[in-house]
Amino acid sequence: MAARLAAAGMPVLILPALDIKPVAPEAAASLDPGLYDLIIFVSSNAVDGYFRLRRDAGLLEPWPATTVAATVGAASAERLYASHLVPSTLILHPDGDAGQDSESLWTLLQPRLSSLRKVLVVRGQSGREWLGERLVAAGVAVERVAVYSREPATWTPDQLQRLGVALRSRASCIVLLTSGESVDAVHANIERAGLLVPWSRSRFVVIHERVARRLQSVLHASGKVESSMVKVCSPGDDAIVESIRQMASL
Question: What's the domain range around 213?
């Protein structure tokens, strides 16, 4: 995305909000897809972490034909397709028009509930419990395995200096935020650097209404009374790039 935006004449400052680190599961048995009717990957990091752990453990068996692999969005599903480790006929995910979140995947899963006895949710060490809770309420046995951790990143003085120059420039900055945790982590860095005022004048692109609500709540708590300019888009690269380009033209 950064390369595409830069090619379109928009300077890009890459400041990861979270540090993603691999985590080994407590039980190696959870890496066996044959134990489950359905495995849900909550993110691209979940896909990468799960298959990395299988490879490291020497588990190279083909994906079982009885196990469906699901993701909450098309972007994570693309990682599954690209891996060629799961047959495409066994990959399930919402399309862009139907929304790309736990609620959208839940809609796809409801007709399949009678065939689901045991489900594995591959995730980070923390995250939203909504989908797992719905499955449990429907009588499905749900296990969860964490394959990565997310910790707030602490930006270096050089990163904060470059951000300060960008935020104080005449051109409006456009900030991409992709999760509620990212909003909190970015805000902590901004507050530490004393950049809350120029940051609040930015324009924002987020990938879900929940992220937008969290952003507005944080900005309001920081003393910003009027609502900021926030655009919600789908989480795919194409949609994000196009939303940023549209925001830049306003």
Answer: 2-14+154-249
